[in-house]
Amino acid sequence: MSGVDEGRDTVEPPARGSDFLQLAAGDVPAGGKAEWLAGRLRAAIADGRLPVGGRLPPTRVLAADLRVSRGVVTEAYRRLAEDGQTAGRRRAGTIVLAAPFLPPPSPAPAPGSGPGGAKERGVRGAGRDGSPLGLRDGDGPGVRETGGHGGPPGLRNGDGPGVRETGGHGDPPGLRNGDGPGIRQACGHGGPPEVRDAGEPGDRTPVRLSGGASTDPGRTGPVHGVLGDQGPARPSPGTPAHRSPAKPTDGTPAHQSPDGPFHHTPAHQSPAKSSPGTPAHRSPGRATGRSPAHHSTARPAHGVPAGPDPASIFRGVPGVDVFDALRAAPADVDFTPGRPDLTAFPRAAWLRAERAVLSGSAADQLGYGDPRGAPPLRRAVADWLARMRGVRVDPESVLIVAGTAQALTLLHPVLRADGVDAVAVEDPGSLGARQHLANGGLATPPVPVDEDGVRVDALRATGARAVLLTPAHQFPTGVVTSGERRRELLEWAREGGLILEDDYDAEHRYDRPPVPALRALLADRVCYLGSASKLLAPALRTGWLVAPAGYHSALVDAKRFNDLGNAVLPQLVLARLMASGELERHLRLVRGRHRGRRDAMIAALAARLPGAVVHGAAAGLHLTVTYAGDVPDTEFAAAALAHGVKCHPLSWHRQSPGPPGLVLGYAAGSRGVIADGVARLGRALRSLR
Q1: Global model pTM greater than 0.85
Q2: Confidence category of residue 202, pLDDT binned at 50, 70, 90
Q3: What is the rounded (10 degree) CA torsion for 562, 563, 565, 571?
Q4: Fewer CB near the terminus (10 Å): N or C of the chain?
Q5: Does the pLDDT at position 476 exceed 90?
Q6: Contact yes or no for 21/60 (Cβ under 8 A)
Q7: Measured CA angle at 653 (ends 487, 390), to 5 deg
Q8: With 0-12 CB in 10 A as exposed, 13-18 as middle and 19+ as buried, what is 501?
Q9: Is residue 171's pLDDT more than 50?
Q10: Are 473 and 616 within 8 A, CB to CB?
Q11: How far apart (Å, rounded) are the C-alpha atoms in residues 216 and 565?
């Protein structure tokens, strides 16, 4: 693998902002901050993004996001209260009471005003460069997602200081690495000495970050419950190298709960005893000071049928059941992308909301519901999209669906009826989404993705009338579509194209400000798809679809004949979480936790996969890692599974040739588990060489 590439010699601080109304710290003026903020709030109340009855964020939260004093936010709120537009409700927070009186609207923009002009839509206003505020480059002034400058000192969490990971050690904001100090970025700035891999003492090549996600070379800290520099645990004499302890007596595979996910045995607790004849296994972390999960790859115990051959899952073209097969395969560490931290699911808040819903629901609410979705949830989703994603939509236009997968399924016949027989897709792009489109009889011509997002010139060349995009955080590369590329996309859509916008991972951002959804800029040519799967849990099977007006009636009919509508009670509970502010509080909690785990994975990759390039670190729940060499990524993924680690090979998500890589989800595992899993990846790659 190659060494560190010399890059730019300057590091710019990260852009920062708030999901709330798409406010960005870079837009805060040097003077008159309170008046500026009050003006933005008045405008949002006037145009409906903040509806009457809506709740403003706590002053300390908004102040931390915008990097202003709390007094600035308090003063802005006070001015709105004096105008009679808001009022404090103690524990309920600051509530919107009435819309302000504004002068008559300005005349409509002249025909032909392009999507990049200052006149566009007359809603968001023009930015400093003359472009609409909603069309700022995704990373804010001076920062580009891929190939740009690195971030600033510290990688501070977007929610302000003070967020700690559950079970953590009070690490300050910034890169606290369980594997010890030692990450350099692609820009070549020096940092502390790199941690060596115990297996290769001579290799000190640090990991490179593609795209400007920063790790702070000045912030290093003690090792907390991770591998450090000790290397893998050695098995007892006579113990086969990748042998796991015996399975529990209920037939569940070793190291796997009856519900599926692997749970590490605590350091003070030994694994289940082996059956007679089974080689002894060393208890993880026993009297060694090492973190849990230093045992070897899980394999079936004596007398239990073996699972699928790891190599068979990654052999040939992946079929429609490939994700089911990988999900069923036993493994100690699960780096499957797209999995949030399910242990953080707000059970207490959900139970409170559920009790309130059950106690306050009339009997007729237990019957068949509206196929479009429960009205309270449609209102809550409309308010959420206005506040968090800049999308203003009438609740009557929101269709509640069973996740993005069902949204695509409902779109199949509607698009074909409109004469659309092909939906272009990003390359690389989601294999699962491509399979869903193909199942509906739609062709999926690939469109390459570069450091600014999908290439619009290549999109035009396909001749497709529709395209499926993940512009807020592209899967799997992590690229955020740049401002210029967004303008090109909107121009293509104005000419008759249809954008299916999967707002994937939009809320999970760390080193960059939020970007508005494309739907906020061109509603009549963008079909918006969102979901609670990454916000809360995939098991809820709840999402939302906001389509152009011409498609809405046909989609409602498709939903009606598909399942008569989603289950009503979970919809009412989710609506209560959204309206009460519990969902936003949960998002702030998991964002800080996910960020710490991302930093732990980047640090572990620096130590265990030197020379690898990390992509997409600024947001989301996964990293894409590319590496030099002639080892196919399918062989690497198969070897990783043989070593007890699940992950996706990057080639699964490609239609055209490209460099090998892995797609690694980090949100679902603790820092110690992440460090152990990456160490196993390093051993797997060395075994192939």
Answers
A1: no
A2: very low
A3: -130
A4: C
A5: yes
A6: no
A7: 35
A8: buried
A9: no
A10: yes
A11: 48
